[in-house]
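Q: My collaborator sent me two sequences in one message, no labels, and asked for predicted structures for both. Can we handle them in order? The first one she listed is below.
A: Yes, handling them in the order given. First sequence, followed by its structure tokens:
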Amino acid sequence: MTYEDFPTDEQAVVTAGLPYANGDLHIGHLRSYVNADAFTRALRKLGQDAIYVSGSDMHGTPIAVNAAEEGVSPEEFALRHHEQYEETFPKFNVDFDQYGHTHDDTNTELTKEFVRAWEDNDHVYEKEINVAYDPEADQWLPDRYVEGTCPYCGEHARGDECDEGCQRHLEPGEIEDPVSALTGNPAEYRVRDHKFLRLSDVQEHLQGFINRLEGTSNAQNQPREWIEGELEDFCITRDMDWGIDYPGEGSEDLVLYVWVDAPIEYVSTTKQYSERTGDFDWESVWKDGDGEIVHVIGRDIIQHHTVYWPAMLEAADYAEPRAVCATGFVNIDGKGLSTSKNRAIWAEEYLDEGFHPDLLRYYMATASGFERDVNFSWDRFAERVNSELADVVGNFVYRALLFATRNFDGTPDAAVSDDVETEIAAAMDDYEDALNDYDLKSAGERAVALARYGNEYIQRNEPWKLDDEEAAPVIRDCVQLVKAVAVLLQPFIPEKADDIWAQIEEDGSVADATIGDCLQAPPAEFGEPDELFTKVEDERVEELDAKLQEKIEAASSDEGDDEDVTDESETELEPLADERVSFEDFQSLDLRVGEIETAEGIEGADDLARLEVDIGHETRQIVAGIKQLHDLDELPGKRVVIVANLEQAELFGVESNGMILAAGEDADLLTTHGDSEPGTKIK
């Protein structure tokens, strides 16, 4: 790869983390796929030769467990969901150049080739390990057939990952107090022979790789503690029937671990695309390193893509990725998305409400930067649609084109002004810079800012007060701005951008246009435009909020019936403390009103944020565990209550000088009813 700014002369492959073929898609899933799709389209806008590939992850224990519960084969179960994904993604204008699955022949054979290459390069060895066993069921318990306690953070963990605590990858035998997910009985550890990929062989390469890696800072920094420390080897086999058989002799009863064949699907789908079209050289990209490989993934699988995957590639003499962009999570109304509590917006549910897919695409790609969490709520969704897409983009396009057609039958015969040409050129440069910083949010916002500039330009020049000769150069500028907006917004709202393209009666598709076309003259003639966007009314938001709450309450009620628990509020409240403190002890706390000036996540820390808080006398740096629970972009300007005389501490290498007070597990920030000034003492 080149590591030069995009566009490069090399071919590029953009991938999205494989959806696990185990359930319906919701908007939390869609974030990664929409962002990767928009990034691929945006690279093409720069003139980059790029394709977008992914596939369904068909293997692993959750699929085997759920298939058994349904009484169907794992293959039948997984294929059903795979086919559902193939139907759902296009409904959101997610346009894969190739979408496969990990159980097809291409990935099966290529995965075995990888393993043979590791063996030929002497990177694989066999050793005895402890594997959980269920005596009652008389079977081994790989991955999510076993539950227990994470040895690193003490939280409840399932199988190969502490997904409720530190999110660390867990090897077989590491879970403490193992319990069989099949019978609910205690499991026992028994010795078993398994295959390992010797990561120490490639540790020096990984240390160089993480320093070269582009993308988001969380993907660059989180893996360092593993790569720079004592790197544990990677167990690549499992005791189960569902998966790709280990290709060596004497291992007929073992299959490859799902995290072996899953990332290899990126290579397989690229190969399938090359063979299908004949216009892409997959070996040049993946084997020779003459290409740009960009992975867009969820934050929970950073370790797999920045430690195990580059190790697998290097051990098989394949090329490393250029960039890994790890997205944050999607929260619903400020709380973590929960499928079990039905606190989720399902993909089909969104479409059933009659909303255009491009509205959600724009929200997901521009609501926050790649690595920050997105807090979805119907009122925020409506606000973004109304204030940015309808009031800015839609309003400008409609006003400009309507005036153009009614007064000039299309584009006036005039030259673009220097000011407008400079503004469009600046937008093009900013757009390119943002994409080279892997900053989709800024790229999308720059396109909307160009439409906002167009609205202000019309308002400032008031062409309706001018005669045709005076109005012609103004409207000529506006039509050029419309064309530029269509080109730059296409990666985010592809269908709506096509509508703009059609309204100015441009040839071909806006998908094929590059940013250079922003300054190319639009057609001389076109008809009257149609409105692009319909605003979301307040009554509609209230209706959608009510539906969401009904779902959550129904799920909580069902859960309560199943578990035979009493009122939820009674079970969630912590008991009052028996021990009392004196009034003097309470007075020793220096509680102050503070105003948050800045808020940003701490790299490598899933929950911690660094805040700058004005407390009147000075500005304090405070670390708070609110990263997952609040939209950090909305915190500046918020008044909070802090403990000002708490001893200083260091968290994740960042000094914290005070504590922000918050209520409950959702970190409901304590504030003041009135407008008390920063520094006001609380008595």
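Q: And the one she listed second?
A: Here it is, processed independently of the first:
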Amino acid sequence: MNIARTHVPHLAIRPWLPAVLTLLVLAAAVALSIDSLSAILPPSLWWQALWSPDTHDIQQIIVHDSWLPRLVVGWLSGAILGLAGTVFQQVLRNPLAEPMTLGVSAGAQLALTVATLWAPALLGGAGQWVALGGALITAVIVLGLSWRSGLAPVTVAVAGLVVTLYCGSIGVALQLFYAPYLQSLFIWGGGSLIQQDWSNVTTLASRLAIGSGIALLLLRPMTLFGLDDANARSLGLSLRRMRLVALALAVVLSAAVVSAVGVIGFVGLAAPALAQMAGARRLLQRLLIAPLCGALILWLTDQAVQQLSGAMGDLIPTGAATALFGAPLLLMLLARMHRATRLPAGSEDIARSHAVPFASLRRRFFGIALLMLVVSALALDFGHGPHGWHFSSLDELSRVAIWRVPRAAAAIAAGAMLAVAGTLMQRVTGNPLASPEVLGVSAGAALGLIALAIGANDAGHIERIAASAAGALTALLAILWFSQRSRFAPDRVLLAGIAIGALFQAVVAVAIASGGERAAMLLQWLAGSTYTITPIDATLALVLCVVLCALTPLCNHWLQILPLGEASARALGVSTRGARFALLCLIALLTAAATLVVGPLSFVGLTAPHFARLLGARRPLQQVLLAAPIGAVTIVTADWLGRALLMPRELPAGLVATLIGAPYLMWLLGRRR
């Protein structure tokens, strides 16, 4: 067996296409760099400015101490993220793993947010150390939660995502309450490459050199990570120890970039994928080519940003715009790629799963359903008013039910639909990191909302729903088009969804980084809000929930067979193309219906399937039956608490769902062996 190729998908592509695209991107980056440098300084003075600038010429000082360090920092940051992303994907055996999987960016941003609000003196000379400390602490928490499982890839990845969502929710809550004091973090959160000296160049260059050397020393054990755990142990690999070393390397590399320039998204995920598409099948090849891809993506992005926002590019953060240039490149390669037939990551475990006794499942289902009814009754009748917590009288209830009932009904429907969509997504792709948002439908809805906000500031509720629906439909059609040539193979669907979602989210991130009322409105909607729910919205949500969820049992046969792989499914008479197309459409409809009503509630779609599995659901229909009420009770509880706890202020349901659900899931993960 060729160990180096065990988990890399066969992504056939014309051999000349990657080389042509690379030359075109390189030529564009060089041309833009020359143009931006010409705008600052005449060509006759370039050599002097680069090596021995005249201290009396401010333009030469700008080139030497700002423009050139920025260029080099972009190269180094992209290369480091490409290297870290390759290590993460190899160790965790997951194409969705990336440098921010272990909560590095979320921890750094939360640490800076807390320091800005309550310890601003630390930011004067130790801002980078604050960000680095927050990133490392978060990573340590993730590794601690997954330690008892032997740092199993699935547990590490899920723990990382949960901690990331938790830290991110705390940060967003603080931004909603203290937005005027955190304007500078909008730019930092978007990833800004602006430099004033060469200190970051020195730091990042040393990290890249040391990290590359360690990665090459770990080449053999990381290659063995491509095998399953039993085979890796039989070859003498100490899984826990070597995973810890490799993950620590990737975390330190990622944290170095985050602390130096902020959050640079998409590069760490796209660079390894582009390296594989370019023909890098062996791990050593990917370790060498992925950093080059990352450096090239970030170089092109930063030079384009400088062209769009002035000579020094200080209006648009580069990190937020990275996907605007990286995603089309990834999509262009995907459109030329032949079908891929590998078994989805993690599907082996799903295929071997065994069901729990039906009686036990039934008791748990009715227990969760009863809890949902109790919480719904409390949400309608028990609240916090001027005289404290109290049950509403009949007269008071008749006055407040007109807005409490629609919110509770919409929360129940949205939670159930996202939970079912998340379960189907993870089953279809065989990937525990997959969530409804991976399809890019939520990002498309957000993009539609932004387009409406730019074109009509006074748009009404119906117009906002229509714009969000148009954006969601656009994202779905694009994903289906890019995936149809591969018969909707899971890895192609994931890559297409990530690329399109990242492209749309880049526009959202740029809008948020601009600050102002538009940024606050988007943050509130992205956090998952039921503020504007009307009785018509609630009724529509409940009808869509009942209809779409009722279609799910009809797909049970497909959900049981598809994880077995392409050959097995065909042998059992299942048309993989038609089955995956139908399931993807159902997932998209569930996600879009929930998103249009209450916004993207990331936590529920990602974690409700894991809650169901931790409670014993193994077969597809069992998992759906448990995940749906879990999602419903999570969102209705979150909406009730978000409305009542801080009266007269409110927290979006999506934030509260993460804040109350993530600690419990972290506790379950920490106890699991």
